[in-house]
């Protein structure tokens, strides 16, 4: 059975997709088809190329990042939260025996949105774990599996110290992960690219499409921020390894206000926080 992987987004398809097809994730206006044409690979081909390596790095006690070098696909960072359960947050395409041994054991995995589906079913099958995706994004699953659990509503307790919050925006089912025990109990929010940490690390942003620079409506950003108002977290780790190191909940609130003001035509000098 051949499961093709799109080289632009790194997402794996089911066995019915052929090399003549175009990636459904990349034809959506939030992504883009490679200007040189659609290209496909497979996990066995990536492994046998010997080009790639996925590195697991401890960021702080209980939190590790997973990054593939050289960059493959979108180049996102996945995270391993080792609290009351060992949870893989988001996914990356490159998985080989070395990574499997480094990661060790996993209890479950959860995804922020379709751009990071990567080889999620390979991971779920390898570690024999469930894979949590919000039901609002069901149509974007390119490789169905019995391992996938479609959850509904706006909140799911994945473990005693981990809660998924569906905040929408970038995708209907866009989800962030709250780890209450992270940052020595002050709380960490893992945001994928549902909330991105920007160049000024005291601020974040929210987009419908990052590669095509399409913003979100003001009402949507207000809703996203209001869901997080009552969630306690001091730090944010996003999908590109950017971190808000302190006071991250306030950073989300002030960044949402600034974004909404900008969309409404009020851009002014602000004090740097
Ligand atoms: Zn693609
Ligand atoms: Zn995305």
Automatic annotation (TrEMBL):
It comes from Exiguobacterium antarcticum. Residues 75-228 form the Metallo-beta-lactamase domain. Gene3D superfamilies: Ribonuclease Z/Hydroxyacylglutathione hydrolase-like. It comes from the Bacteria. This is Metallo-beta-lactamase domain-containing protein.
């Amino acid at each position: 059975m051949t499961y093709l992987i799109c080289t632009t987004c790194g997402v794996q398809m089911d066995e019915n997709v052929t090399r003549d097809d175009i990636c459904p994730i990349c034809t959506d206006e939030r992504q883009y088809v490679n200007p040189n044409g659609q290209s496909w690979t497979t996990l066995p081909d990536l492994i046998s190329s010997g080009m790639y390596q996925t590195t697991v790095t401890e960021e702080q006690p209980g939190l590790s990042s997973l990054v593939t070098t050289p960059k493959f696909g979108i180049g996102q960072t996945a995270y391993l939260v080792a609290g009351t359960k060992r949870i893989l947050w988001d996914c990356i395409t490159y998985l080989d025996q070395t990574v499997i041994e480094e990661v060790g054991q996993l209890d479950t995995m959860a995804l922020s949105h379709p751009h990071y589906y990567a080889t999620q079913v390979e991971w779920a099958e390898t570690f024999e774990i469930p894979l949590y995706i919000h039901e609002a994004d069901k149509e974007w699953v390119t490789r169905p599996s019995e391992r996938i659990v479609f959850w509904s509503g706006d909140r799911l307790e994945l473990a005693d110290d981990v809660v998924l919050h569906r905040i929408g925006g970038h995708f209907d089912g866009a989800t962030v992960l709250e780890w209450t025990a992270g940052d020595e109990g002050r709380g960490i929010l893992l945001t994928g690219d549902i909330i991105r940490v920007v160049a000024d690390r005291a601020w974040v942003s929210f987009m419908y499409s990052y590669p095509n620079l399409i913003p979100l409506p003001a009402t949507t950003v207000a809703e996203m921020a209001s869901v997080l108002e009552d969630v306690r977290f001091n730090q944010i780790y996003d999908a590109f390894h950017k971190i808000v190191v302190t006071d991250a909940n306030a950073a989300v609130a002030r960044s949402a206000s600034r974004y909404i003001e900008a969309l409404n035509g009020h851009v002014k000098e602000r004090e740097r926080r």
